[in-house]
Amino acid sequence: MSVDIKTILVARDLSEDSSRVIRYALELACKFHAQVHVLHVMPTVDSSVLNMVALTMGPDNLAKFNAANESELAEKTKQQLHGIIEQEKELLAEEVLHPPKVEVHHGDPAPMILDVADRLDVDMIILGSHSKGKLHYAFLGSVAEKILRKTHRTVTIIPPRADKQ
Predict the structure, then answer these.
(1) Phi-psi region for residue 58, left (φ > 0), alpha (ψ -120 to 50) or beta?
(2) Domain coordinates in residue numbering, the chain
């Protein structure tokens, strides 16, 4: 069995460690001449909170507000991710052959990551793990754990920096 990685999905939030995780994916992509897709999933607001806000604003006003703000927030998030990618590309010894592609979606993170991985037919999913203090060693983040349990794809978990634990 030989290892052949053509497509990598990096699922990231916008935490401090995002750049480390993206750099890891870019370095791996350079070695395998792979395409990197960077995904950020913005969680949806709890329905009980939405119902309360809808009572105050009115359902039509809330729908308009959500539509306008979700697209604006998604665009700002894409710009932030592109900025991180550009900074990390400059630090690489090798040139990135395929420009990374960025996607931002709204939804439940684990199912969305799995859906995008299936749609893109990726060879590998790269995730960063969140440090939960001493519990970090006993448990993975809930999103990472759900993905590991439900995918047939290779998953790589990048731990937080050692000096942050």
Answers:
(1) left
(2) 7-164
Q: What pLDDT does residue 1 have?
A: 66
Which ranges of the chain have pLDDT less than 70? 1, 45-46, 50, 130-141, 162-165
Give the separation between CA 36 and CA 65, rounded to whole angstroms.
33
CA distance 12 to 31: 21
25 dihedral zone (left: phi>0; alpha: psi -120 to 50; beta): alpha
Classify 29 in phi/psi space as left (phi over 0), alpha (psi -120 to 50) or beta.
alpha
Residues written for the chain: 165
pLDDT of residue 154: 96
The whole-model pTM stands at 0.81
Report the top-level CATH class of 7-164.
alpha beta
User: Which phi and psi angles does 84 have, rounded to 5°?
Assistant: -60, -45
Count Cβ atoms within 10 A of the Cβ of residue 95 and give its class: 0-12 exposed, 13-18 middle, 19 or more buried: exposed
In sequence order, the β-bridge partners of residue 103 are 39
